[in-house]
Amino acid sequence: MAVRATVSRFPIDVDAQEASGLPWGLTVTPFAAKDENGIGPAYGSNGHLLPRCENCYAYFNTYCDLDQWAWNCSLCGTLNGLPSDAISRYSNPQSIAEMTSSFIDLEFPLDGSEEEMTQARPVYVAAIDLSSSEEFLELTKSALLAALEALSPGALFGLITFSHKIGLYDVQGPIPVVKNVFIPPDVESSLSLELEDVMPLLQFLAPVETCKDRITAALETLRPITSWERSAGAAQGMDSVLMGGRGFGTAMEALFNYLGSEFGNTFALARVFAFLSGPPDYGRGQLDTSRYGEQYASKRVDADRALLPEQTPFYKDLATIAVQSGVCVDVFAVTNEYTDLASLKFLSIESGGSLFLYSSTDDSTLPQDMFRMLNRPYAFNCVLRLRTSTEFKPGNSFGHFFPDPQYENLQHIICCDSYATYAYDFDFADNSGFSRHSGDQPVVQIAFQYTVVVPPEGLSNSEMSSSSRGKHTLQRRLRIRTMQFGTAHNINEIYDSVDHEVVLALLVHKVILASLEQGVREGRALLHDWLVILTAQYNDAFQLVQYKNGNKSMSSQIDITFSQCPQLEPLPRLVFALLRNPLLRFHEEGVHPDYRIYLQCLFSVLEPSSLHCGIYPALMSYSTPDTLAYPRHSLSRAALITSGSPIFFLDAYTTLIVFYSSTADPSIPFPPPQDCLLRQTINKVKQERSITPKLMFIRGGQDDATAFENYLIEEQDVDGSGFASAMGFVSFLDDISQRVAEYMK
């Protein structure tokens, strides 16, 4: 569980917090195996015996004062009695996780019989769009073949297709058999019969280890619906038969109800991989894609606002059905046409899944992404709770979870991998703030309760009865991190403790929220105003602007680069980069609304360092493929020219580019050899990433370098077309300086 705060020394009170101009909060990556310093938790058992405070329900931790019979809660100060079993356990503290570490992970006893515990077979279902092309189906087959290699023994796999009808595949017999049911074309009608009546679920879900060859054979039979339906019509002497239609909504609704009948019996979590080649346009949940087009210019409608909200609650409601059925949905959209991901995204993010967008089949990383996603550990049925000491409280929470309807600051996460990150901001409980004199320090406690599926080889022989050998088991665990923070006695101490990457993470969450509610322009304005106010507060705090004749002598004296505070120096560049990012660029600049939604979903779950990379890519130079010249350049042409290095490596999180300058010595091997330092760096970056980045090699003067040059944003106008100009970052700083001068008058 990695936790990073915007400031490591908290503001002392409301006035200090407002005067700093900084967001106050933290990010948490609950299922990360280690903390932000690379240290793992202390593991233990009997999580249900961990004492809890009678007043605030916080868990006992190493910051609590403990005597023989009682303990003081480190969050609220309440004196709690110790139960007799805890007294005897805590008499030997070295063997107890919660006595040795403030970061613990305890096993919880599961409810139910051992037989129920072992019914934990992982279930995976591929739902494939047949209203598509041959290229799309070839890519999907490649992805699913990669997925089959990643699935653990004991997993169950189902194959379903959709178009104007649903196809269910039975791969447990000698040859694959498909049974079809037609989808009603209108928005209101459901299927005429349940999928269970078409094919029993346990006939549909096949064991991977015995049926892998037949699953592969079934995949090979898939053809786009339009081609063979048309040819069949032509063979019967009909002039033209246009079947087709993408009945995605009806198919998903029927599938969730189908799977839900065995939730808690055959499986504890089912993962559905939905492969889409375009917008749902048939049956329930069909979307009107005509809202995307040239009509905005004529109607004077703000496209940056109109295309961000969903046009129907259907998929949000469908996500609720998925959750109730124990289903997590990953949506893989392979399309360059408008698909309205603004409506579809809820199906994935609210069911605990991911949303992937690939603009073409040619260079798609879909198979690698599938393999990577299935190969990493995940937790499910998770509950995340953040508690604080009494002087402050959690404010807004951000991330792909849904809040508990009954309890405040309690979030449910259906499925959580080791990369998924969530954010919170803080407010003071009242105007008194933290005590300046007492020794009590602010405390944050994050509790994360989750379930994992443990494969048979993950259990010792002593843990397995003879009847459960070869079966997966469920394990319920409780992970707790308790942290103490210092308080800042003045604004310099706040500024010196800033983590600019976490500040960026909270800003990104806030501008995404503002964009969704009020449009992209409002999101940009919010970000711009924030930087102006922060710069003004900083100049005021350091008394950098002098008074002459009772008036402040302005912009020439304003420090817009935070030269007195190294921790704040990166922020103007990060804000400029965020304003240049497709997340906040205008519709008329050619930003596709689906790509914007994809970035919103991606950036909402990234941990701060990865997000920094996505917003302001890392650019480093090499004098040879084996020699690093400089580890970090600004994103400008000037930096490239002045460095004199022949090779540059740019990491933009989703894209990696190796660029050889036009003046590079022809004897330097291109592309770089597999055993060189640069390749090792590339491979390490790819290995640590949650998605598969696209890797490009570009030779300056010979290849089209546009893809690389587009990332050199510092000469680009912050509000304009993105073409290189004399404007760019320097002009942006001048504008901020003038705005600060006006603000401080």
UniProtKB/TrEMBL annotation:
What is the top-level taxon of the source organism?
Eukaryota
Name any one Pfam family assigned in the record.
Sec23_trunk
* NAD keyword on record: no
Its BP terms in the Gene Ontology are:
protein transport
- Could you tell me the keywords of this UniProt record? Protein transport, Transport
- Residue ranges of domain Sec23/Sec24 helical in the record: 499-611
The segment(s) forming the Zinc finger Sec23/Sec24-type domain are 51-84
Residue ranges of the Sec23/Sec24 trunk domain? 121-373
Family to which this protein belongs: Belongs to the SEC23/SEC24 family. SEC24 subfamily.
Q: What is this protein called?
A: Protein transport protein SEC23 D
User: Origin organism of this chain?
Assistant: Cardamine amara subsp. amara
